[in-house]
Amino acid sequence: MDSQAPISPLSTPAGTAASPVRHVHGACPHDCPDTCALRVSVQDGIAIRVQADPEHERTLGALCAKVSRYTERTYHPERLLHPMKRVGPKGSGRFQRISWDEALDTVAAKLKAIAARDPEAILPYSYAGTMGLLQGEAMAGRFFNRLGASRLDRTICASAGGAALAATYGGKVGMQVQFFAESKLILIWGSNPITSSVHFWNLAQQAKRAGAKLWCIDPRRTDSADKCHRHLALRPGTDGALALALMGELIRGDALDHDYIQRHVSGFDKLKARALEWTPERAAEVCGVDAALIRELAQDYATVQPAAIRLNYGMQRVRGGGNAVRLIALLPCLTGAWRHRAGGLLLSASGWAAQARNDAALQRPELLAGRSPRVINMSTIGQDLLREAAPDFGPKVEAVVVYNSNPVAVAPQSAQVAAGFQREDLFTVVLEQFMTDTADHADIVLPATTQLEHLDLHCSYGHTDVLINEPAVQPMGEALPNTEIFRRLAARMGFTDPCFGDDDEALARVALKGIDFEQLRARGWARLPVADAPFAEGGFPTPDGKVVVDAPGLGVPDFVPNHESPQMTPELAARYPLAMISPPARNFLNSTFVNVKSLRDIGGEPLLEIAPQDAMARGVVDGAVVRVFNDRGEVKLRARVSTRARPGVVNGLGIWWRKLGLDGRNVNELTHQRLTDLGGGPSFYDCLVEVAPA
Fold this sequence. Notes:
Elements: E1 22-27, E2 37-43, E3 46-52, H1 70-74, E4 84-86, E5 95-97, H2 100-117, E6 122-126, H3 139-147, E7 151-153, H4 159-169, E8 185-189, H5 193-196, H6 198-209, E9 213-217, H7 223-226, E10 230-232, H8 239-252, H9 258-264, E11 265-266, H10 268-275, H11 280-287, H12 291-303, E12 307-311, H13 321-335, E13 344-346, H14 350-354, H15 359-363, E14 375-377, H16 381-385, E15 399-403, H17 407-410, H18 414-421, E16 427-432, E17 444-447, E18 456-458, E19 465-469, H19 482-493, H20 504-510, H21 517-523, E20 525-527, E21 547-548, H22 570-575, E22 578-581, H23 597-603, E23 607-610, H24 612-617, E24 625-630, E25 633-641, E26 649-652, E27 688-693
Parallel strand pairs: 6-15, 7-14, 8-9, 8-12, 9-10, 11-21, 12-13, 15-16, 16-17, 22-26, 23-25
Antiparallel strand pairs: 1-2, 2-3, 4-5, 4-17, 18-19, 19-20, 22-27, 23-26, 24-25, 24-27
C-alpha cells in the first residue's frame, strides 16, 4: 500500500493561545450492551479526550479500557485517509491511492454492469462495526433496496437468542438493567461482564455488597467467575440440560408461583412433563458438573427473591442455542420472579427500542418496488462465495460491498471465507477505517469516518435509553461517513429518487418515533417509557399477553446436543476430544481494536487456555506454541496452561486479525458453518479440536 502521511493531533503554534475546550455529546458505537454516553473534549479542532458523560446514569461515569482510548483510533497512524485500488494479488494488501471520482466511477461501472445481468449477484455484507442507526443501515439500506441486490440475513451474533426470545416472550424484551442492583440472587449465565458489560458488572457488585449471591454459569473460569460466590463450569452447549434440571427441581419441590403460571404462562403442563425427566444426576452427566452444585443452584433460585438472570449471547452460539435460551427464559416465569422489578431476565432490551425506531423511514423498503430479492445468511458467506449459480441458490455472487464488518476475520471457517474473497472474478468494495483482513482482499477500499467524525443515533440492547452522537471533529483526510459514501454511489448509479438527497440531520430527524429530537440533541440522550416491572402482571408482547411454551412450529423446548459432540458425532469426538470456545479477549471487541497497539500489547499474542491435565497429557508446557487443529484446518497459538480452562475444553481467545496471528490465521480457521436450531445463527462454540506441540 502506498505510504500515507502519519496522523497526529495538531499542536497549537508557539505563541498562540489555545482556544477554550468544548465538550460534545457522543455515544459508543460498538457492539456492547452498555451503549455508553460519551463526552468528547475538543480543543483547536482536535479531540483531546474521550470520557464517560458523568450525567448519564447508565454509563455511571466510567468507560471500558477500549473506548477510553478512542482518540488512538481516530488519530491512528494507519488510518485510511484516501480511496485506494488494488495493484497486487488479492490478500496481498498492495494498494495505490486514487481519487474519489475514480473510485466511485469504478464501483458504479462495475455494479451497473452486474446489475444489468442480475442485481441479486450483488451482496451487501455488514454487521455491528457501528451500532448506529444512520451509519449502519440507513442510506445503505436505501441504496441496496433501490438496486434490488441480494439481502443479507444478519445472524452472526445474536439471531438464535433473538428468535428464542421472540418465540417465548414475543420480542427481545427483558428487565431494566439498573434494577439488578436491588436483586438478591443474580445468575450471570454465559457472560463475562468484566470484559463485555462493565456497567452491568458495577450493578452486580452493588447487589453483592448489599448481600446478594452471585452465580456464574460459564465453561470458562472468567474474571467475573472469580468474583462470584459460585461458578458452575458446564460443558459448552449443555445449558439447556442445566435449565431443564433446574425446572425439574423447582417442580419436585413445588417452588412454583402457581398463580403467575396459571394467568401468564401458556402450555406449562407440557413443559412440566419434560422437565420432570431431568434429575440433577442426569444433567450433571451431560454438563460435566457435580449434581450437588445443580441442587444448590436450584435451591437458591427457589428460595431467594428477587432473583434475576443476566443471560448473554455466548451460550447461544451452539447447535441447540435457541432451545437453551427458550428454556432459560421460562425459569423466571415459573417462580414469578417477574413480579419484582429486580427479578426476571435480561438478554436483550432491543425490543423496547423497536417501538421508537423508524427503520422503514430510514431504509425505505418501498424502493424495492415489489421485488423480493433472495436472502443470503452472513454466517455461511464462505460457502456461498464459492457456490455457482443454481435454481435453489440463484446467481453466483459477483460483487460484495462490505461495511461495518470484517468477515475474513470474524466469519466461521475463515479459510473458506478467505478463499471466497480471493476469487479473481469477485468484485469487492470495502468501506473501512483500517486495512483489515477483508480490506486486504478488496478491489476498491473507501475510507470511512470514525465515531468522532460523524452524526449518528444509537439505541441499546442492554438498557432503555436512546443516545445521540454529534460529530466532534472534521473527518481526517478524505474519509467520509458511510451515509455520504452511499449517497455518492447512488448518484453515480443514476438513482434520482429524492430520498438520496437527505443529509444526515434529515435522516436523524426521521429515525425515531416519540422522541423529541431537539431535546435529545440538547441533553445527549432520552429515556424510553418502560415500566419498572414490565411483566409483573403478564402483558408480554405475544398475541394473548402470555409467555409461550409450546411455540407454533417449534413445539416445547428441549435439550439439543452440539453438532460436534460425543452424542452426535462419536467418531469425530474420538479424534478431536477437546471442545473449543473462542470468547473475546478482554481488550478486543470481536476484531475491533486489535490494531490499537496499546491494547494489543496488553493482549500479547493469540492465546489458547488449556487445563493443566489436558496440557500434561499432550506434552504441552506453558508459554509454548501449539497446533490447534481439526479436519477444517489448524492454527498456531501460544499455550497458557491455566485453570481458567475446564478439563476437556480449550479457550482460544479471539478475535485476532488473521494477519496478526502467529501463522497468518485465527481461531475461526477451526469453526464451521453449520447453523443453530433457531434463527440461522453460527455455532462458533460448537467445535471439536485437538492440541499438540507445534
